[in-house]
Amino acid sequence: MPEHSFTLILVGDVEGRLDALFEAGCDDAIFGCVDSVPYGDFHRTAPTLVDAIASAISAVESVHDPRVARVEPDNLVTARDCGTSRPDARERATPHCLQARGGNAPSTGLSPARAQSSLALV
After folding, report:
1. What is the Cα–Cα distance from 41 to 95, expressed in whole angstroms?
2. pTM to 2 decimals?
3. Residues 87, 58 share a domain
């Protein structure tokens, strides 16, 4: 079965619930916090991405406090992710990013994993 990577943006106490999250089936995730926003980076084996995300949400929400606020698949490209080698790079990429996300969806910015790796470079 394929492995799917995605990030769950969470609300609630994650740090105090790490053991419970592990026991609930989140042993394939790394939990962290960026700008006071908790997240879980998952690398889950499942037949489809939808199955992987659904099982991860179910596992997280089976624990008392943390709740899933949203999902960020690592393979989504946002306008902010696009290079700035040209002055008009962002404007040129925006229509493609919107189309990939299904129309007029707002930009999600960087995923926590990308934000954290960007901070590590500073």
Report:
1. 28
2. 0.61
3. no
